[in-house]
Design goal:
This protein is mainly alpha-helical and 63 residues long. The protein has three helices and no strands. The two termini are 20 Å apart.
């Protein structure tokens, strides 16, 4: 269950970071540009943890 929640949060972060209002605001404000990079990093981190959890669960279930 934790892997699913983390994967969903990671996907949501990636989508939010690339929404047109945020993507357009990046051109005019450097702070938002760095915030966008942080959001993308956080989303990737959540995805990586979720994938690791799924791998551990599959190895535990397999034997």
């Amino acid at each position: 269950m934790r892997a699913l929640v983390l994967g969903g949060i990671g996907l949501l972060c990636q989508v939010v970071a690339l929404l047109p209002p945020i993507d357009n605001a990046v051109d005019s404000n450097a702070a938002i540009h760095y915030l966008q990079h942080g959001i993308i990093f956080a989303g990737g981190l959540c995805m990586g943890i979720a994938l690791r959890d799924l791998l551990v669960m599959s190895r535990r279930a397999g034997g």
